Amino acid sequence: MRLPLFAAAQVQALLASSEASSSSSASLSIQGPSTLLSCTPATYTWTATSGPYTLSIQDHSSTASSVDAPETISENLVIVSSGESATWIVDVRPGVNVSVSIVDGQGNKAQSEVVFVSEGSLECLD
User: Fold this and answer.
1) Which residue of 5, 21, 54, 92 sits 20 to 30 Å from the alpha carbon of 15, by its own alpha carbon?
2) Are the C-beta atoms of residues 78 and 41 closer than 8 Å to each other?
């Protein structure tokens, strides 16, 4: 069955509206690797909510901060306008406990698990 052009446009608009409302009602969460190696790529994925997404690195090492108030290593690590993943070259020295925090376009926040950075390459570090 063929739909008239205006009906097809209405159906497309309805589907787009339905997809947008289902993604914006999802709870923001972020997942990453269970191990990190310095100067090695690490991919983080998150639930699609409402972009843009701002990611930052948090230092949970006992010398840098308390567990409740981690120090931010990198403000606005990356801003992703859409999509559900980003890859980070772990430019943090070995021996640090880090997490990745994310804030979506509506101000919702989430944080990955805290992971210890082990020694990989040191080429990307100053």
Assistant:
1) 54
2) no
